[in-house]
Write a structure and sequence with these properties.
The chain has 172 residues and is an alpha+beta fold. Helices cover 27% and strands 35% of the residues. The chain is built from 4 helices and 7 strands; from the N terminus they run βααβββαβαββ. A 7-stranded mixed sheet has the order 1-2-3-4-5-7-6, with helices on both faces. Strand 3 and strand 4 form a beta hairpin. Helix 1 crosses helix 2. The longest helix has 15 residues. The model has no long low-confidence stretch (mean pLDDT 91).
């Protein structure tokens, strides 16, 4: 790891512009995110931070190192009663901070929270098939592949990436 374990804290609404800017930087590399940079709006992230809390069965975290936000992640409950035991995970390690333990620190915090929340039984995520370091991290934490959507993202003329669907059972 490139530095000490980052501080993990709950996201605050005032973090939204910084998080959105980081996501726009990540999205500028074809295939890293499904969103295009101009589709990432500060206010959308602010709303997500406000809506995800223990009352709704979700959480939004950021990772900081030396006062700089270096990653963010959230767990969002699915909305239907029949799927309310499932949370969707989204994680972004900011450019220049990959492979330094930021993702693992965020994942460990999210999974600790999920395991302590009686409403959460399953954590789901999707990851690009080309993101081998992330897939390896998820597998090391116990996630298994549940499916794949082939050629789901178009990143150029006749150039596609698959989305891999992974999940971890944390409930009884």
């Amino acid at each position: 790891m490139g530095f000490d374990v980052p501080l993990i804290r709950e996201a605050r609404p005032e973090d939204a512009p910084l998080l959105a800017a980081a996501e726009r930087a990540i999205a500028s590399v074809p295939g890293k995110l499904a969103s295009m940079p101009d589709e990432i709006v500060d206010d959308d992230l602010r709303k997500k931070i406000v809506e995800l809390d223990d009352r709704c069965g979700g959480i939004y975290l950021v990772a900081e190192h030396a006062g700089t936000v270096v990653g963010h992640a959230f767990l969002e409950p699915l909305s239907l009663d029949a799927t309310s035991h499932v949370v969707r995970l989204m994680i972004a390690v900011h450019e220049g901070h990959q492979r330094q333990g930021v993702g693992r620190a965020l994942m460990n915090s999210l999974l600790r929270w999920a395991r302590s929340n009686p409403r959460v039984e399953k954590v789901e995520l999707q990851v690009r098939s080309s993101n081998e370091p992330a897939i390896a991290l998820y597998r090391s934490l116990g996630f298994v592949e549940e499916g794949r959507k082939t050629r789901r993202l178009k990143i150029g003329p006749n150039e596609y990436l698959d989305d891999v669907y992974m999940a971890l059972w944390v409930g009884p």
